């Protein structure tokens, strides 16, 4: 199961590369003032090229998915990437000039940290994932001169599966194991520095008790804090079969479970996992409908989007959740 979960990162990476290949990302509309996307396309291509030298098997997998570049998939990737980036960049701009840390939990092959670290000098960025994932990522980052320089990697730890440069840490940790998580995060973070947590398609793969323990720990330990989370929801209407079909497909095709898909199956249920904090949860169809007309025109010119109903069904079953807390949360 752990391996199957870890491999979902290759899908996320393929989807991002596909959206880049077709021109959805980076968004010129949001670039600059609202989002920092400098060198976005090139750094992803550099990552892919170096991945080929680190693992032909993973490179092959990523490349295969990349060949089937459907508009519905690219729109979905665009929506999740841009909506997280807008919130993240907004929060970082608010803290501009003061120390701030981002914890990208289950960050996989995410490369957000590269443009962000160069745009926000006071930012420290911590990436956490399973060891198998961090070993591949650290090798790629070490072997690619441009990425290595951008992240200021100095101490040679290529084979250790971790990176501990001055502002960027890559940590191998099983987030389902709360004692390990406390210990490892404790070594590289400060509890009283403003902290932004990202979980992009990660909580859905964790156990219910384990994800709750993670939320409780982070919201008690770090303050002030902000959490940006993106996940699928199973659907709560009696005739809604999205979640059950998704679970069955994942189980049959990959032996993969999403243990809480039907527990946090609506926006309201998803928000409850952060109680007593107030969580603002919106579905991604709402985000789609909020795209400014000029940007929508650009997106629709990239590929012919015939399957609007399919896009709507999918995107009403994915949510973006934002939570803020000023003091450690006491439950
Ligand atoms: N957040 C990245 C993104 O959106 O591009 C990767 C998303 S991928 C679908 C899910 C990631 O969460 C994988 O990299 C997986 O290894 C990681 N993950 C899930 N459960 C985890 C756990 N218990 N401990 C560490 N990483 C975990």
UniProtKB/TrEMBL annotation:
Keyword set, alphabetical order: Methyltransferase, S-adenosyl-L-methionine, Transferase
Catalysed reaction equations from the record: [phosphatase 2A protein]-C-terminal L-leucine + S-adenosyl-L-methionine = [phosphatase 2A protein]-C-terminal L-leucine methyl ester + S-adenosyl-L-homocysteine
One GO term of the biological process aspect: methylation
Pfam families: LCM
Binding positions for S-adenosyl-L-methionine per the UniProt entry: 80, 106, 174-175, 200
InterPro entries attached to this UniProt entry: LCMT1 (IPR016651), Ppm1/Ppm2/Tcmp (IPR007213), SAM-dependent_MTases_sf (IPR029063)
Primary enzyme class: transferase
UniProt keyword RNA-binding, yes or no: no
Keyword Transferase part of the UniProt annotation: yes
Gene3D superfamilies named among the record's database cross-references: Vaccinia Virus protein VP39 (3.40.50.150)
UniProt-listed Enzyme Commission number(s): 2.1.1.233
GO molecular function: protein C-terminal leucine carboxyl O-methyltransferase activity
Family: Belongs to the methyltransferase superfamily. LCMT family.
PANTHER family attached to this UniProt entry: LEUCINE CARBOXYL METHYLTRANSFERASE, LEUCINE CARBOXYL METHYLTRANSFERASE 1
Function: Methylates the carboxyl group of the C-terminal leucine residue of protein phosphatase 2A catalytic subunits to form alpha-leucine ester residues.
Protein name: Leucine carboxyl methyltransferase 1
């Amino acid at each position: 199961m752990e391996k199957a979960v870890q491999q979902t990162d290759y899908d996320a990476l393929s989807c991002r590369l596909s959206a880049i290949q077709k021109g959805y990302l980076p968004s010129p509309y949001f670039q600059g003032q609202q989002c920092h996307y400098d060198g976005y396309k090139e750094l992803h291509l550099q990552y892919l090229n170096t991945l080929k030298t680190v693992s032909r098997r993973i490179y092959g997998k990523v490349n295969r998915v990349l060949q089937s570049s459907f508009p519905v998939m690219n729109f979905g990737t665009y929506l999740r990437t841009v909506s997280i980036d807008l919130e993240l960049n907004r929060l970082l701009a608010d803290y501009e000039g003061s120390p701030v840390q981002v914890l990208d939990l289950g960050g996989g092959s995410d490369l957000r940290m590269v443009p962000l670290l160069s745009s926000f000098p006071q930012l420290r960025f911590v990436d956490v994932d399973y060891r198998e994932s961090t070993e591949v990522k650290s090798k790629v980052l070490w072997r690619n001169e441009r990425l290595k320089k951008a992240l200021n990697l100095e101490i040679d730890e290529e084979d250790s599966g971790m990176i501990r440069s001055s502002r960027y840490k890559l940590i191998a940790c099983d987030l389902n194991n709360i004692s390990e998580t406390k210990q490892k995060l404790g070594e590289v973070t400060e509890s009283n520095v403003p902290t932004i947590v990202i979980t992009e398609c990660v909580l859905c793969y964790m156990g219910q008790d384990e994800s709750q323990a993670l939320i409780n720990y982070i919201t008690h330990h770090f303050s002030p804090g902000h959490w940006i989370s993106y996940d699928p929801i199973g659907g709560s209407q009696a005739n809604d079969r999205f979640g059950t079909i998704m679970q069955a497909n994942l189980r049959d095709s990959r032996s993969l479970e999403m243990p809480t898909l039907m527990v946090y199956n609506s926006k309201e249920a998803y928000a409850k996992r952060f109680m007593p904090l107030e969580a603002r949860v919106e579905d991604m169809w709402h985000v789609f409908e909020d795209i400014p007309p000029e940007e929508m025109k650009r997106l629709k010119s990239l590929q012919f989007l015939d399957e609007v109903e399919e896009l709507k069904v999918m995107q009403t079953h994915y949510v973006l959740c934002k939570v803020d807390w000023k003091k450690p949360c006491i439950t």
